[in-house]
Amino acid sequence: MVSRSYSNLLDLNSVGSPSFSRGAKKMSRVATVTGVLSELDDESRSTGSDVPSSISQDRVIIVGNQLPLRSHRRESDGDRAWDFSWDEDSLLLQLKDGLGEDMEVIYVGCLKEEIDPNEQEDVAQTLLETFKCVPAFIPPELFTKFYHGFCKQHLWPLFHYMLPLSPDLGGRFDRSLWQAYVSVNKIFADKVMEVISPDDDFVWVHDYHLMVLPTFLRKRFNRVKLGFFLHTPFPSSEIYRTLPVRVELLRALLNSDLIGFHTFDYARHFLSCCSRMLGVSYQSKRGYIGLEYYGRTVSIKILPVGIHMRQLHSVLALHETESKVAELRDKFKGRTVLLGVDDMDIFKGISLKLLAFEQLLNQHPGKRGKVVLVQIANPARGRGRDVQEVQSETFATVARINEGFGEPGYEPVILIDTSLHFYERIAYYVISECCLVTAVRDGMNLIPYEYVVCRQGTEKLDEILGLNPSVAKKSMLVVSEFVGCSPSLSGAIRVNPWNIDSVAEAMDSALIFPEQEKLMRHDKHYKYVSSHDVAYWARSFLQDLERACQDHVRRRCWGIGFGLGFRVIALDPSFGKLSVEHIVSAYKRTKSRAILLDYDGTMTVQSAVDTNPNIESIQILNNLCIDPKNVVYVVSGKKKEILARWFSSCENLGIGAENGYLFRPNRNTEWETCVAVQDFYWKQISEPVMNLYTETTDGSFIEPKESALVWNYQLADPDFGSCQAKELLDHLESVLANEPVSVKSGQHIVEVKPQGVSKGLVADRMLAAMREREVLPDFVLCIGDDRSDEDMFEVITSAMADASLSPVAEVFACTVGQKPSKAKYYLDDTSEILRMLQGLADASEKSAKS
Question: Residue 758: helix, strand or coil by DSSP?
């Protein structure tokens, strides 16, 4: 049974593999692309990069939408040159702390300022030489469509659970914006290709702006060591599946080796989308989650990003910070400060926070004049009417609260809607009793982490605030359950931001908690935040990326597919396509042949409505069976009655039924069992359990067999069916623990069968029968498509060692589709298998006539 991830393979071609040496690389100084690309356009440039480069050095190329740089144009004395400096607030710069001093880092991204085309070459050279940054210069019109168009109108709202139900909510899907998105990703790919040494370097791509970049890089360098981290939420499949380019983005992400998410929820949604839309399932092994995708294992990393501790400590120690803290101490003397720090956008829930604070003042009149909400509203990053509406609603709500509850010398809400210096924001953290984060959806949000560290303070700040440095610090957090940082802050008061009463109650609780409780919660948070900083996050991600790529060197890789459907197949070096000419030649020169054929998925398409063998298949089998040199078996999981009826016209055909429990050498012999089973009493235990899951899983059914019971969920919801199958597997293993049976899961099935039953038994019986006739096969062909056929492959490949085959025997173990297998060969699909078998049958027919 072939999963969809292995079906419909296109044009498999092995391509050249030049060496890429850093020393010999001549880097182009700038590459500016002004056109719009509809899809990938460089189909002829894929390479496997098989030959190692001459220089090996640890290096990581970090790719993000923006370079971690600040830029400023000098205007004095007619000198209009550009000045550049590191942006200390950039996450891409901060993560260097976790990479080690011996790790070279190169950045690829855009500049925040527009650079005149005449200056781009000089700027690019300066940035490369001074900062090891490679700028991607995007034409303004293309950048607008890419960033403000596709990224902010389509991906950003959708990933935050906003559907484009009307033009006012993100707008309808615009194909030209998607083409701009692809084009910009292609420009980024070209920039990475200018500097990459594909066999040595790691590439780490960041965020939703560059989700198709992995496809371009994987197409150019099949073995590129590529990680991707998504800093936004990933929506549930019900939301994500509305995106017209949903499959293209999923396939692009799966061209990475490691995909990172902040929380398990985001990863779970991504895995569900892969299962529902691509038919790719995941497995968890020794704590690592992986998706098997065309022979490659795509690993999943779940770890929230941290903050930059060193930067925070340095800002806390600044004289400016100390002065600002003293100023705020005096300003809010005798009052308790609640703090909100948010971007001015529709997902941050600022208005919900204000309504909850209004509710707090209504319900607790004693807090009026004593509690102040300081709301820092950072300027919005996006554009559009939604931002204007949020601003208008925020200003109106603040005005209403201050008018209703304000008094001389007391303003309940202080709204700061201008940009603050970092040290000013830090000062507000230091003097605030509680931090409020009420976002309705947010990828991570590091504000609570920053707040906790700042509340730990310094000796100088303790002195300014009149605190005893030897006394433990305290802090309180009210955090929306829809933010990525929420799961890691177990001591926070988690709230549903849409429930105004609940948020108001949480504010009150944060203020009246016993001091000891506040100390304990702060201590728990500080220990986590300080140990899981941005350096820890970066180091952990790179370690997992290295682990995910460790098998690259020993795997053979091919690129298949066109456009954004491109993917790489990774196979064992000894695995290759079965040549029809080669096997027919071996067939002709051999005298004693053993042929084992799986049926479902091998001789007929697994998903076909009618799985009965057609006239062509019957004729091929009869021609093979008539040849006196051949012993031919068809082995299937189906019942003996069905197989006997289907192949009633094949007199000399051997049949293995129910995955090897029953077999007969030909039509004129009786059915025999391969394993002696005294009693099937265990069915009376298994069937009621299966019935329970059948009743609760729509689309599932029980398939009773003579030797087994099979629970089939092929027609059920894939996620629910898979979940139920795992539960059923555990349930059956528990109740049948002391019974002589095995419980196994397969492609959309859970099966209970006697211990020792496998298709390998039929292969054993066939070879044993030939030995009894003193015939040692010198030609063995075994073909199958799924996990149950691996037992046959194992038997025939090990038969050489126990003298069951002729010393000069030629063995052909062949699977269907290119996937990891114990077989040495593969054929792409059922039609290729039938053509190959027809070639063998024709050879037998010609031999009989001669």
Answer: coil
Contact of 838 with 620, CB cutoff 8 Å: yes
Q: How far from 414 is each of 68, 198, 325, 820, CA to CA, in Å?
A: 32, 53, 17, 62
Calculate mean pLDDT across residues 259-269: 95
pLDDT over threshold 80, residue 357: yes
SS3 annotation, 778-807? CEEEEEECCHHHHHHHHHHHHCCCCCCCCC
Distance CA 312, CA 448 (A): 13
Q: Where are the domains of the chain?
A: 59-73+86-302, 309-532, 576-675+759-849, 681-754
Give the pair of three-digit tokens for residue 223: 């073995």
- pLDDT tens track for 152-203: 989 999 999 988 876 665 567 899 999 999 999 999 999 999 999 988 999 9
CA angle centred on 341, ends 339 and 347, rounded to 5°: 125
Instruction: In whole angstroms, give the CA distance from residue 247 to residue 277.
Output: 7
Is CATH 3.40.50.2000 the classification given to domain 59-73+86-302? yes
Interacting residues of 263 by C-beta distance below 8 A, sequence separation 6+: 302, 304, 484, 487
Do residues 360 and 508 make contact, with C-beta atoms less than 8 angstroms apart? yes
Write the single-letter amino acid at 306: G
Rounded to whole angstroms, the Cα distance separating 343 from 349 reads 10
Q: What would you measure as the largest C-alpha separation in the chain, in angstroms?
A: 114
Could you tell me which CATH number the domain at 576-675+759-849 has? Answer: 3.40.50.1000
Position 191 scores a pLDDT of 97
One DSSP character per residue, 622-669 reads HHHHHSTTEEEEEE-SS-HHHHHHHTTT-TT-EEEEGGGTEEESSTTS
Identical fold for domains 309-532 and 681-754, yes or no, is no
Tens-digit pLDDT profile for residues 735-768 = 998 888 889 888 789 999 988 888 999 999 999 9
Residue 39: HSE in the Cβ half-sphere, 13 Å Cα cutoff:
12
User: What is the rounded distance in angstroms from the CA atom of residue 201 to the CA atom of residue 257?
Assistant: 13
Query: How crowded is the C-beta side of 19, counted as CA atoms within 13 Å?
Result: 10
**Is the CB of residue 690 less than 8 Å from the CB of residue 724?**
no
Q: Measure Cα distances from 41 to 17, 64, 348 in Å.
A: 20, 22, 39
Taking a C-beta distance cutoff of 8 angstroms, is the pair 367, 361 a contact? yes
The span from the CA of 380 to the CA of 577, in Å, is 56
Nearest partner of 658 among 763, 552, 758, 780, judged by Cα: 758
Q: Tokens 């596709």 label which residue? A: 150
Per-residue pLDDT for 44 more than 70? no
CATH topology of domain 309-532: Rossmann fold (3.40.50)
C-alpha 151/C-alpha 153 separation (Å) is: 6
Mean predicted lDDT score pLDDT of the chain: 88
**Secondary structure (DSSP) of 188-236:** HHHHHHHH--TTT-EEEEESGGGTTHHHHHHHHBTT-EEEEE--S----
Query: Does residue 95 contact residue 538 with C-beta atoms inside 8 Å?
Result: yes
Give pTM, 2 decimals.
0.76
**Would you say how long the chain is, in residues?**
850
Task: Tell me the CA distances in angstroms from 717 to 95, 276, 721, 724, one per residue in order.
Answer: 41, 9, 6, 10
pLDDT of residue 606: 67
Pairwise CA distance, residues 647 & 705, whole Å: 19
pLDDT digits (tens, 9 = 90+) for 288-328: 899 988 888 999 999 999 999 999 999 999 999 999 999 99
Choose among 768, 761, 779: nearest CA to 804: 768
For 681-754, CATH gives 3.90.1070.10
Residue 340, token pair as written in the block: 């909100």
Chain position carrying tokens 């597919």: 561
**DSSP of 317-348:** T-HHHHHHHHHHHHHTTTSEEEEEEEESSTTS
